[in-house]
Amino acid sequence: MQALAAQAAVAIRNARLEELSFKDPLTGVYNRRYFSLRLEEEAKRQARFAEPLSLVLIDVDRFKSINDQLGHRAGDDALQETAKVILANSRAFSIVTRYGGDEFAVLLVNTPKAAP
């Protein structure tokens, strides 16, 4: 019984470490590594099943001036708030990622280019 409990604890710890490796520590959204993996998966799914797939790229305007004028903490706050706004306005199964410094990418699975 103890061996089973130990195996379960290791599995839980490994799952947590994997999750941490896919998350951006500042914003809490997925990181570019996860984005790359999911983009490949979703592109294959789209090709196989012809389900629509859309991609949104978001770049925070004048981000450098926020850091330069107000400091890096303010820049961090701006990125965190941006991530919150994107998440709040995305479907639960949309894939929200921090793509780069002030860039976010959102994979919109099963979403056509134009809404009906």
Distance N to C terminus? 56 Å
Strand content: 15-25%
How many DSSP H or I helices? 4
Main sheet: strand order? 1-3-2
Shape: flat
Characteristic terms for this protein:
single chain; 116 residues; alpha+beta; three-stranded antiparallel sheet; 3 strands; 55% helix; flat
Outline of this structure?
With 116 residues, the protein is of the alpha+beta class.
Outline the secondary-structure elements.
Elements: H1 2-22, H2 32-49, E1 53-59, H3 63-70, H4 72-88, E2 95-98, E3 103-109
Antiparallel strand pairs: 1-3, 2-3
Walk me through the structure.
This protein is an alpha+beta fold. The protein has 4 helices and 3 strands, in the order ααβααββ. The protein has a 3-stranded antiparallel β-sheet, with helices on both faces. A hairpin with a 4-residue loop joins strand 2 and strand 3. Helix 3 (63-70) crosses helix 4. The longest helix is centred in the first third of the chain and has 21 residues, at 2-22. It is flat, with a radius of gyration of 18 Å. 13% of the residues are buried.
